[in-house]
Amino acid sequence: MALDYSSLGFKAIIAKLDNGVLVVTLNRAKQRNTFGDTLPAELIQVFDIADRDDRVRVVVLTAEHTAPAFCSGADISKGWGMLFRPEEDLEGETAHRDGGGQVTMAIYKCRKLTIAAVNGHAAGVGMTAMQLPFDFRFVWEGAKLVFPFVRRGINPEAASTYLLPRLLGHSRANSLLLSGITVSPTSPLISNLYHEILPRREDVFPAALALAKDLAINTSQISVAYTKGLLQHPGDTIEENHILDSRAIKLLGSGKDAAEGALSFKERRNPKFPDTLSKNSSPWYPWWRTVDVKHHKAKL
Amino acid sequence: MALDYSSLGFKAIIAKLDNGVLVVTLNRAKQRNTFGDTLPAELIQVFDIADRDDRVRVVVLTAEHTAPAFCSGADISKGWGMLFRPEEDLEGETAHRDGGGQVTMAIYKCRKLTIAAVNGHAAGVGMTAMQLPFDFRFVWEGAKLVFPFVRRGINPEAASTYLLPRLLGHSRANSLLLSGITVSPTSPLISNLYHEILPRREDVFPAALALAKDLAINTSQISVAYTKGLLQHPGDTIEENHILDSRAIKLLGSGKDAAEGALSFKERRNPKFPDTLSKNSSPWYPWWRTVDVKHHKAKL
Amino acid sequence: MALDYSSLGFKAIIAKLDNGVLVVTLNRAKQRNTFGDTLPAELIQVFDIADRDDRVRVVVLTAEHTAPAFCSGADISKGWGMLFRPEEDLEGETAHRDGGGQVTMAIYKCRKLTIAAVNGHAAGVGMTAMQLPFDFRFVWEGAKLVFPFVRRGINPEAASTYLLPRLLGHSRANSLLLSGITVSPTSPLISNLYHEILPRREDVFPAALALAKDLAINTSQISVAYTKGLLQHPGDTIEENHILDSRAIKLLGSGKDAAEGALSFKERRNPKFPDTLSKNSSPWYPWWRTVDVKHHKAKL
């Protein structure tokens, strides 16, 4: 029997699946959608499930557009202690694993298409884990955006020093991460981060959903997974990339989705792609080393 | 006796050399300049020759501006079978080498300056192999541009998952490759790909040719080759790059082209650079590993 | 007793420290601020000192806005011989270390924030070492900017083939380095290089100084150093970056600057960050290999 997302007991998020599009809405408007309580764990869980649920083709993360913020970061009114877990402290100085980074990686490793619909202000982890690992970002033109880390005595987290320079280049990444200034989406410092910038808060989610619906119908699940794999793990040289994409072309080009892709294009109609990741991926995937980042406890 | 490009028997392209500029024109307008028949092999051959012909300083690839498209990709009206060669199939699943990728690498490895004059619509391999490996791209403002792979059940090829993120950053590369949407050159999603965007189709080639003529006169062949080498193979760290560019500066700065470059600059005249790659390169070049990507046959 | 920058005997630059901001002004207006005489050595020295002087939080490099140029590159009126040192020539062809690259690395490795205020024309090393290794670049809209290397018979130096593609992506880096054309800051080919573009020459330094003063008060020295470290040495994979930024978060999040950062944010006042690099860095920093690029003499 198919999984019902409403049965998972989420509190910090609401998750609904409809025709291949899984919409995840932050449900902490009263807390300015701060990154706390069960939110990180629920995000990790929902993206992990979305990765493995063949019915899901696109995941959209958004907030209520009437909330005070899309995500105002971590709540630091009581200092930084909430970042650390007592059981990690017992294990020594290298045991800590940043919660934002754990969410980042759950989203980044999801083999389905992911869209962030940023319909409000965003700060700190609301800029990093909640935006950078996504495939596409939509944003409200009036949003105040800030990576405030150097102004708070800490460092950018959630793998943002890896992701932001890759997304925008180091000129813009340096400007944003090393100044900690607040910018709006139309600033040339950050505009390239966004697939689309919408004038009104209430327009952001519908625009993201329209792309999501298009992609849920018109893209192949297996094409998306292999393309994301090639973008994240292209090989070290152009020759290695050529060998990898040749192998993928051979594999996918001989499959049912490719046949349907060519036929539906010829017949000028929407495709009905039959292949799914659970049945039609190959032993060759993933071709990169998957790394376990968990801390290995020193004592039994 | 010098090679005559008209003697090479090309059918899918026309190649003409004039004062250091080799113009290669796609000659398949009736087939919408699709990537088929002898086109891939002829492109590989002409860029390989251009790489080694000292007379060539710049290569411009273009199409007739009255053609239905600059290049509308592969012809998939009969499915994807045309991608695969029977002799490769006999060799097993890892034998295939993507034809687009082979063209990409011939262009990318050409040590001369390369310009794509995209004076029409472009799709699929018309966006990848026919544009991404070039040093400069000119485009018609009205061109419809699309990387449709995820909508056809296959994956981006021709080393595009290596090249496009390097050219534009991952934010734009993800938007283009993972959505498969059609964009125009002025879209912020793709505009950074182009050196210049021209309002009329007929303006694209003349603009590209004007830059080509300027560069053919005013750039040093050996400077170009070493600069391309440094850009493609910069070393793994800033320290390694410093050691590489120091060695190149020592080598080139002691040469005739550098002496002429300084003198002509002082005398405010065009330079006449005497050095050529066949005579004046060094045993040190290339400093990177050259990789053989051919499939090694399993049986004799 | 604290170091007095006016006691260092600089001739080619003027260095003044005021409230955490070290302003370095090029002092060779009569020589068009060419990169010669003692200028390279003095720049290396002042950035090396700034790196280690706890009082310095931000370094601003600028020129007199009435000078003929911000920096017109190397003076090649007598050819390229000035690039090479006789003692290096005795050591053989691999002994040369590019002077521009040595300056680049002194600036790049400085753990404090660095700003270039480019209030005039810039060419050659005036574009490379004098701009690319900085964290932020401000520029006058009317500046003529050029990387002329391929037009002079040499290659781009000062680690520019490493830095420029990282800053802007390869599409723009190729356009600039392989054409050698002169552009203005508002050209789409180069505009992403600049944090801010100012209409008048005399506005450039004040704008840069305003950001410098903001950053000197409101950023943590140790946050800046670790963030620069993470941006320059993010690890090879997202997993490695996650482990690195987790460790930094653990270290910094437990420190005094982080406590003050959270408290001052809560109290809506400017922070007073107490931590300094000389006292509060950790044995773990740097986590990357530091490489010695000096030539090792072959003979005693």
TrEMBL record, chains A, B, C:
CDD domains: crotonase-like (cd06558). Gene3D superfamilies: 2-enoyl-CoA Hydratase, Chain A, domain 1, Lyase 2-enoyl-coa Hydratase, Chain A, domain 2. It comes from the Eukaryota. Belongs to the enoyl-CoA hydratase/isomerase family. This is Peroxisomal enoyl-CoA-hydratase. It comes from Gymnopus androsaceus JB14.
